[in-house]
Amino acid sequence: MTTDHTSKDFDQALERARQLVEQMGARVERQLTDALEALHSGSPSLIAQILRHEAEVNGLERVIDEYGGQIIARRHPAARDLRLVMALLGATTDLERVGDEAKKIALYARSLHASGWTLLPRVHQLRPMMALVREMLRQAVQALERLDPQAAAPLVRRDLEVNAAMGADVRHATVHELERLLHR
What we know:
Radius of gyration: 19 Å
Low-confidence stretches: 173-179
Number of strands: 0
CATH topology: Methane Monooxygenase Hydroxylase, Chain G, domain 1
Number of domains: 1
Mean pLDDT: 81
Distance between the termini: 54 Å
CATH superfamily: Phosphate transport system protein phou homolog 2, domain 2
CATH architecture: Up-down Bundle
Largest sheet: none
Order of helices and strands: HHHHHHH
Helix content: over 70%
Number of helices: 7
Structural class: mainly alpha
């Protein structure tokens, strides 16, 4: 990633920040994959791994926030570079939220399997949706890496579609499925 200014140190700082965000994106993507598997398997070691990754994601967010603040304070970036730093910082916030959701799924999986409950049939339908969400996450991180807002724009529409599909799935859960879950 290079910009139009002449500071090699500044370019290196931006590149380091971008690499950290890329690392965070890969970690969160792994969390999502593991969370879905944990939901199906209930594997205690997999759940523990997700929780460890959550701690690492939170640590990366703090490091990137601090690093971004240092870039702004020391370099006083101009408009384009400042937007880039702010985009990287915004991405870390969103990635951390995704990691939080993966953690919630893992904790739900642990609770579900510890209580001996079986999964509702609709939970198995999450696999295709989760694959879509992981792909969208990958594309978003790649768009950020390439600084390509045109590649990110279609993801907003797809995100709305996933949210609508998830809402429809939850609304269509039958009373029988919910009763079975509650009376176990």
